[in-house]
Give the backbone structure.
Amino acid sequence: MVKSIYDMIPVTWAIEFKDRDTAHAIYDSTMAKYDDNTFGSRTVNNDTWYIGTKLHDDEFKAKITEFLSQYNISVNQYTITKTAVGTFVNTFF
């Protein structure tokens, strides 16, 4: 089966928390169980996590929500958005 370019290039998602301290505290507390192979690599800056993932949109949202709920972090404590960095598409093909 031939993979599309979107299956090979990570898409960057932002998970925004209410403030910097919350984002960093949750990042630190989830470090042991966070799996780069499942979600993609992540970094934290100010009040936001950035995750570069190869998962499809719905799959990523479901898995990251399930992961955060293991730490009693409800969906109203953060927002998940696809960033403008996203993926690069060459329009000259």
Q: What stands out?
A: The radius of gyration is 14 Å. The chain has four helices and four strands.
